[in-house]
Amino acid sequence: MIIDIHGHYTTAPKALEDWRARQIAGLTDPSQAPKASDLSISDDALIESIETNQLAKMRERGLDLTVFSPRASFMAHHIGDFQTSATWAAICNELCHRVARLFPDHFIGAAMLPQSPGVDPKTCLPELEKCVTEYGVVAINLNPDPSGGHWTSPPLSDRSWYPIYEAMVAYDLPAMIHVSTSCNACFHTTGAHYLNADTTAFMQCLTSDLFKDFPTLKFIIPHGGGAVPYHWGRFRGLAQELKKPQLREHLLHNIFFDTCVYHQPGIDLLTTVIPVDNILFASEMIGAVRGIDPETGHAYDDTRRYIDATLNLSDEDRFKVYEGNARRVYPRLDRALKAKGR
Amino acid sequence: MIIDIHGHYTTAPKALEDWRARQIAGLTDPSQAPKASDLSISDDALIESIETNQLAKMRERGLDLTVFSPRASFMAHHIGDFQTSATWAAICNELCHRVARLFPDHFIGAAMLPQSPGVDPKTCLPELEKCVTEYGVVAINLNPDPSGGHWTSPPLSDRSWYPIYEAMVAYDLPAMIHVSTSCNACFHTTGAHYLNADTTAFMQCLTSDLFKDFPTLKFIIPHGGGAVPYHWGRFRGLAQELKKPQLREHLLHNIFFDTCVYHQPGIDLLTTVIPVDNILFASEMIGAVRGIDPETGHAYDDTRRYIDATLNLSDEDRFKVYEGNARRVYPRLDRALKAKGR
């Protein structure tokens, strides 16, 4: 089985975007503010948006199952206040849940959280709990910078995040550390902010002792770990300077990297320097990079081709990257699959 | 000849740091503010600080010449106002100039600028001009984020930066795009902020048409280009989405990467995906990562070993990386060398 642990609902029917536009307009003109119940999207519309997009490509590429979460760039936690985010997160999570129910063999949910800049992360717990107990999500997406590129929250090692971690541990949920749209003109969202956040989050973990407090906490750093694997020697050396244990001991029981790296040399590097037990297959399809690579004739984000082609992995390694590691790092996913005899 | 284009004066005598501490104290208590002339460092002290550190390692590693600039993390442009930075930059640039005069065969200067958050970059021109005409610097270090991790300046494509670029073009000076200390708790300085800035600067260039306005402008993105080479497919794909020319045409006449990547697989990747004409040897020694890699028994920042060992470069390629490209991208360096028959 091939499990893609990183897919977002980037192709939701336009009614969703329209509702969000009204919600944002309502922040300055409350007469325009919509109710959650004003949004109505039929099952048929959901089915079409998936069948012609993600599912079509999954079939083309031979991918079986996607861990599916709301569109990352649309989370936009910087907009409005907690209530704005709470309503928006509830809507987006419910849509992903419906997709997972409509396509139970191919999609399983991961939840976005109703984060808001300056608001205590523990306010996210009711939504998180609902998504676990009612929707059966197997992971959450945690935004280390709800300000959208101004980085006004404390690092992930700060105790204000601990209620989230306690819930993650209690529910056996990993978190993908994933920012949203940048509203800082310095940072292009998918070309700079995403990758920077990945590197930043890794370094926040490296300088802290977070995983001493939470030995079973699990973070997935997406986009191949940002700059981390390319600079693995730098990070090993920095850990040494900082008198931390070696990275394998210090971080690799808890941190995992996905394979959203859109060319063969990048995947070759990732699979050279990062232990295979810490690499989980993903493509972030349909996402930031949708074109065909003229150098290969294939989609940039068809990451399965790079995993299949790399000389660094044995068949057993590929099984881990495609399926085994996901089942280990996402225990609720494993249980959901086993309950269906998969 | 082996030219290291990225060395900082990280080992200056402690009197420099003490003077800076007094300058910072003077911001809140003007009675403590020192005069520039209060700093006195003898030639002997400079010589010792270099001979026992950078020059010793250059000899060990067989490096001939370093492009030498003030300590990057100490630029700290976020401290004080323009006058604070102006006095500090003048002191630091003069020290590097003295090092270059004391060791003319081994060091040649690059200037830091007296940038200050929210202050028009053109205020840096007098210091820049002095460093070129009086000190003979061959490059500048340009900080894309003088706020120190808050990213409050406009992107490098903004017209407010143009006076700097006009001077660079007029003087045949390349700029290394290099941030300083992070005062944002989210970003570790050398583990996150430096690499993030590299990626950010590259993407600012990618999304803009800066090099249409300045076809001969040259930027060096240090630290191996941040996350860029590892994600080269992503950036090629993003350029395509944004209807920009292919990256070689769009950016690689103007953007160059150094080799400050502290392990073999990183250098192998860099030399696989980036054309050899765009790679310049550097180690940033003595810098962020000073230890011995237990996996190799050699210093992490002994980057010559990786360049020598990589299978991706021919002898001709190595000449370009070690010397030829530096002479082309730093025309004033080439002229200075030729004037000495080198």
What this model shows, in words?
Helices cover 45% and strands 11% of the residues of chain A. Chain A is an alpha/beta fold. Chain A has one domain: Metal-dependent hydrolases (TIM Barrel, Alpha-Beta Barrel), CATH 3.20.20.140. In chain A, a hairpin with a 4-residue loop joins strand 10 and strand 11. In chain A, helix 6 (125-133) runs parallel beside helix 7. Chains A, B: This is Amidohydrolase. Chains A, B: InterPro entries: ACMSD, Amidohydro-rel, Metal_Hydrolase.
Rg measurement of chain A, Å: 19 Å
**Name given to the CATH architecture of chain A:** Alpha-Beta Barrel
Note the total helix count of chain A: 15
CATH superfamily of chain A: Metal-dependent hydrolases
Helical content of chain A stands at: 40-55%
Biggest pleated-sheet summary of chain A: 6 strands, parallel
Give the CA-based shape of chain A: globular
- Strand proportion of chain A: 5-15%
Q: How far do the termini of chain A sit from each other?
A: 9 Å
The strand order across the widest sheet of chain A is: 4-5-6-7-8-9
Structural class of chain A: alpha/beta
- Any low-confidence stretches of chain A, pLDDT <50, length ≥5? none
**H/E element sequence of chain A:** EHHHEHHEEHEHEHHEHHEHEEEHHH
Largest interface: A-B, 57 and 58 residues
- Averaged pLDDT of chain A: 98
- Identify the quaternary structure here: homodimer
CATH class term of chain A: Alpha Beta
Number of domains of chain A: 1
Number of strands of chain A: 11
The CATH topology of chain A is: TIM Barrel
